[in-house]
Amino acid sequence: MSTPRPRNAAQTRADILAAARHRFATEGFERTTLRTIAADVGVDQALVSRYFGSKQDLFATATEFKIDLPDLTGAAPDDIAGMLLPRYFAVWEDDQSFLALLRAAGTSQVATDTLNQTLAANVAPTLRAATPDNHRQRVALTDAFVIGLAMTRSILANPPMVSLSREELSRWAAPVFRQLLVGPAPS
Predict the structure, then answer these.
(1) CB-CB contact of 170 with 81 (8 Å)
(2) What is the pTM assigned to this prediction?
(3) By the 8 A CB rule, do 87 and 69 touch?
(4) How many whole angstroms separate alpha carbon 178 and alpha carbon 86?
(5) Is residue 2 scored above 70 in pLDDT?
(6) What does the alpha-carbon distance between residue 168 and residue 162 come to, in Å, rounded to a whole number?
(7) 10 Å Cβ neighbour count for 58?
(8) How far apart are CA 48 and CA 55, in angstroms?
(9) Which residues contact 73 (CB under 8 A, 6 or more apart)?
């Protein structure tokens, strides 16, 4: 017989969120169940539902992430990548919430919608401040580039991408950021 879990609602809730982030990050939204999350923590599935409601509600809570981007208003074009990439790296490589969301976005409309809403609310306004024209296109292309880098480096773990240091990747990515955000628009 296993030792009963001590009663601590705040700790149990935090443990459920940690288990959910891990499961969503490694198995995606579709394959993760409330039952497996509950088992990971050693609680009943009903407790998970009581704290978080549905699987979608738990997913939304578990994948909330914040990216603290700098003000790009008036930034020198050659400085933009250096201002952005360290912030992106912190999310791609250190934030389990973002990784869970990114992994799940490939198979779940809920995750895709959540990621798009987060980009629109938290990233687009910052990027738009740097763009001289074609704001929607420039922001969308920059988002696509960033998501591609994050996916290739953090989810697919593509060996050439993983082997690049942050500094090396920054040097390769900087001209692309510059072109997408402030370079001449295609004619």
Answers:
(1) yes
(2) 0.78
(3) yes
(4) 15
(5) no
(6) 11
(7) 23
(8) 9
(9) 129, 130
